[in-house]
Structures are given as structure tokens and as C-alpha cells.
Design goal:
The chain is of the alpha+beta class. The chain has 2 domains: 89 residues, Phosphorylase Kinase, domain 1 (2-Layer Sandwich), CATH 3.30.200.20; 132 residues, Transferase(Phosphotransferase) domain 1 (Transferase(Phosphotransferase), domain 1), CATH 1.10.510.10. 44% of the residues lie in helices and 18% in strands. It contains 7 helices and 10 strands. The strands form 3 sheets. Strands 1-2-3-5-4 form a 5-stranded antiparallel sheet. Strands 6-8-9 form a 3-stranded antiparallel sheet. A hairpin with a 5-residue loop joins strand 8 and strand 9. Helix 4 packs antiparallel against helix 5 and helix 5 packs across helix 6. The relative contact order is 0.14. Bound molecules: adenosine-5'-triphosphate (ATP) and magnesium ion (MG). Adenosine-5'-triphosphate binds next to strand 1, strand 3 and strand 5.
């Protein structure tokens, strides 16, 4: 059977093929949907719905960045494969059979969030870093998923920092990598506190000077960018 033509999906196709809407477009946020075509599932992340010109441009930047990160991670298990940019602001990727750790109920948490799970999550983050990709938004814990087999998976690479992209990336990469590991400790402290070691508890709150500066600069840039993207739009981009 031939491959679905992900690159030529239109928004009308996406509407027709939708199985589930994960997030509706809101302010600077993209719409995230699961679609099914020729028996194959994919996730479509679209920054062009109900948005203004600035959001389209920002969306194209973010979708391109996420696409680049997914390509670098190609072949790693439990990271979505990149499928296509159907438009510069519409990213299509593999659908992972997994759900956010934040959606686990108390009983599931006890069964799933084991030392083995955390070791596998740490290893997955190390594998990403070895490919030159720091995720940058794992502290938002719903970007960490769990498969039915209890394995960790990672999505949402819109904030990823990649080695070798520009001199600034090299400068902030260690900070963002440290931040990725801190998300593991955060997840532990919130959902499996008995597994958190003293060393991890210390690291959870300790930030290097460089990281404090990086976070301030990032917040300073993000605020006006988000509010520009959130302004009333001209409607859907094609
Ligand atoms: N490839 C995927 N496979 C399975 N589920 C996915 C995939 N990508 C995204 N999701 C689901 O959709 C949710 C939102 O996706 P994502 O985090 O990429 O968008 P977002 O704009 O960052 O949303 P938010 O800001 O609310 O996190 C994820 O938390 C996850 O539940
Ligand atoms: Mg997210």
C-alpha cells in the first residue's frame, strides 16, 4: 500500500479526517488534531487557524523548528517521526499511541511511574541530547507521554534548541539540557515523591546563574511575541 500524501493535506482534508481534537487554536497556540488517512494516524499541528499574520509567521518559525528537531531525532523510539510540513505553519507527524502522564489516575501512577520508567525517560532525554536536541519545554509535564506498555514518550518540540543552528544555541544548550533533566525530577516530586533522591531534590531548585539569565531573557522576548500572536486575526490562513 502506498504512503498517505501528508505533504499535500489541506485544512479541509484535516477537518474531514479528524479523529480527535487534542487542543483547539487559542491566542498564540496552534490547533492539534489526530487524523486518520488510509488507515494511518497522524497528528497535525496547525498555527494557521483563526490567526493573524504575525501568528502565521511565528507558527511557520515554530513548525519549522519542531520539524527540524523531529528530523534529528529520527529513529528514536517513542519520539514522533516527522511526516511533512503541509503548509509552512502546518506540521504533520507520526501519532504515538500514548497519553500524557498528567492524565494518569492515582492508581495508574503507582503502576506506571516506576524507577524503570524514570530510568527510561532519562535515557530518552540523553539520546535526544546526543542528537544535538534539547527539548526545552518538558517542565510542561503534559509533553511527557506514556505508552500502553508503560514506556515514556516525548512530544512538542516547538521550543527545542539545536546544536549548531546558531551561536546563541550553543550558548544556551547546556542550560536547556539541564532543564530537561529537571523535568524528570519535577515529575517525580509531583507524582512519585518517594522516588526522588536528595540529590535530585537539590537539583530541582538549583539554577545556574547562566540559566537564570537565559530564562529572564526568554521570558522578556516571549511576552510581547505571544501577545502579538494573540491579537484578533484575519481568519484562517490557507
Ligand atoms: N505525536 C503525537 N502523538 C500523540 N499525541 C500527541 C502527539 N503530539 C501531540 N499530542 C497530544 O496533544 C497534546 C498537545 O500537543 P502539543 O504539546 O504538541 O501542543 P501545544 O501547543 O504545546 O499544547 P500545550 O501548549 O497545551 O502543551 C499533547 O500533550 C499530547 O497529548
Ligand atoms: Mg505541549
Amino acid at each position: 500500500m502506498s504512503e498517505p500524501d501528508w505533504a499535500n493535506l489541506t485544512r479541509a482534508d484535516v477537518n474531514r479526517l479528524t479523529v480527535e481534537v487534542y487542543r483547539t487554536a487559542w491566542r498564540a497556540r496552534p490547533e492539534v488534531r489526530r487524523i486518520r488517512l488510509m488507515g494511518r494516524d497522524a497528528v497535525v499541528k496547525d498555527y494557521g487557524r483563526g490567526s493573524n499574520n504575525f501568528k502565521h509567521a511565528l507558527g511557520a518559525f515554530l513548525a519549522t523548528r519542531e520539524a527540524a528537531a523531529l528530523r534529528r531525532a529520527e529513529g528514536l523510539a517513542n519520539i514522533p517521526d516527522f511526516y511533512a510540513l503541509a503548509r509552512p505553519w502546518i506540521l504533520v507527524m507520526e501519532h504515538l499511541d500514548a497519553r500524557p502522564v498528567t492524565a494518569l489516575n492515582e492508581d495508574e501512577r503507582g503502576r506506571v511511574l516506576t524507577p524503570g520508567f524514570f530510568a527510561a525517560l532519562t535515557s530518552l532525554i540523553e539520546q535526544l541530547h546526543a542528537r544535538g536536541v534539547a527539548h526545552g519545554d518538558l517542565e510542561k509535564l503534559d509533553n511527557i507521554l506514556v505508552t500502553p506498555a508503560g514506556e515514556p514518550a516525548i512530544v512538542d518540540f516547538a521550543a527545542a534548541i539545536m546544536a549548531g543552528r546558531n551561536p546563541l544555541a550553543a550558548l544556551v544548550l547546556p542550560q536547556v539540557e539541564a532543564n530537561d533533566f529537571r523535568a524528570v525530577y519535577k515529575l517525580k516530586s509531583q507524582y512519585a515523591p518517594e522516588l526522588l533522591t536528595d540529590e535530585e531534590r537539590e537539583k530541582l531548585h538549583a539554577r545556574s546563574r547562566a540559566e537564570v539569565i537565559f530564562r529572564k531573557v526568554r521570558a522578556y522576548i516571549r511576552r510581547p511575541v505571544k501577545s502579538l500572536a494573540a491579537r484578533d486575526g484575519e481568519g484562517d490562513a490557507p
